[in-house]
User: Fold these one by one.
Assistant:
Number 1:
Amino acid sequence: MKKLKVTTADLQPGMYVAQLDRPWLGTPFQLHGFQIDRESELAQLRNCCRHVYVDVSRSNISDSELDRLLAGRRQGP
């Protein structure tokens, strides 16, 4: 499993959220790990987290989007 740290601003439907930047308890998410399917899930994640860890192998995103995320990691802050 390859996990990427992704800011919530960069999240999009199809990404599999494997870990939050905080404990799952106390968030609106009942499952510990889920694929983003709806805009409401994006809004909830952005409301309670600054970043999450996305499991690339379980995500349904294009290769070009994955390349964009990886390029952002290489460039750093």
Note: The chain has two helices and four strands.
Number 2:
Amino acid sequence: MNPIIMAPTVLPSAPAIEYLEAAAAAGFEQVGLRLHRSLVMPFHPVVGDEPQIARIRALLDGAGIDVFEVTSFYLAPEMDFAEYEAAMALGAELGARIALVIASDREWSRLV
């Protein structure tokens, strides 16, 4: 059977630790994890916060939760690729299989 994956939009205001604790308490086996800021959702930084990353790893391991995806990466005219890369690298370290990329550019030819 396919797993049901908890998305960060379920608890948009929750910091990563609270979000993962809720996912564990609800019995989720996989989660999406917001590692980059959204244009519309609250954001609690994780990248570069080693104590928080260690707690996240411990929570994931202890609860048997896998990170399925990391969010939110926007294709836009102004992008900080280094910032994206750091968030995606952390996601990969945590086992994420995909990154959610959202198009946010009105100029079609540039977007393509």
Note: Residues 50-63 form the longest helix (14 residues).
Number 3:
Amino acid sequence: AQYPSASGLGITAGPQASFWHSAAAIYRPVPGAVAGLYVPIGIGNRWEIQPELLLSMDGTARDIPDGPQRILRTFHAALPVNLKLFLGRTFNLQAGAWGGYLLHARMDGNEATSTISTLDMGVCAGIGIGTGSGVDLTLRYCNGLANTLKDDHALLPSSRMLVATVGKRLVQFRNTRSHGH
């Protein structure tokens, strides 16, 4: 059976909830957003590889004993690359890796870029729907693998994100994709 184009160039955006995870401290999620470009490339019967270039507003919150909640907001340039397996005409499973470069950070309204690790990386898994009209819906969970704090040897936090996006393929590279059954 023939299916809509798999390869193209599109824009994507959506909300996300991000937080840090540490065995030594409790962090809380904060709302954020992500937006950017994606390039789904058909690589086989039921497969796509999808690199993305995103701007991500994320961060975390932490309750301080006998004090107010501290909120960290970060702004990253992120490069996720996911492999997508289509289980039918539209539904797909996704898994991959991502890397992020810190552009800016603020803690409670004050500059905090110098305390946050410049590079972040991790793995993602999720589900998606790709329609024949070029609309892509995605829900992903990303698990960081790197320490997010510079010069930290006690808390060792890593980032976590739940991301929902809506994408639209603006340019189609091929006319058809075939999914064998």
Note: The CA atoms of residues 17 and 174 lie 34 Å apart.
Number 4:
Amino acid sequence: MPYNVEIEKRIDKIISSWPYLQKRKMFGGICYLFKGNMCFGIYKDYLIVRTGQDLSIKLLKEKYVVPFDITGKALKGWVMVQEQGFSSSVKLSNWLQIGKEYAASLPPK
């Protein structure tokens, strides 16, 4: 199943004015990078967000949030959010900001 292009359109609308973001095809979907560091993306109908390990543990307790596991081994410091978890533009923007802030905390590549 290809990734959901409607989610991509929603993301692109929100981040259109954000500097230093690039978009690449990865994981069979789309991944966004901030100064060369992956920060969020789309896998099938899921939003994937890089959060860091400590925050991911907290966020995994929220409704509609699951481990980022597409291979049978979850990636630490990442979460997958079901569409119900980012149904509004405000919710989606909040998730994207989490990913961007984490990527901004890393050295540029």
Note: The mean pLDDT is 96.
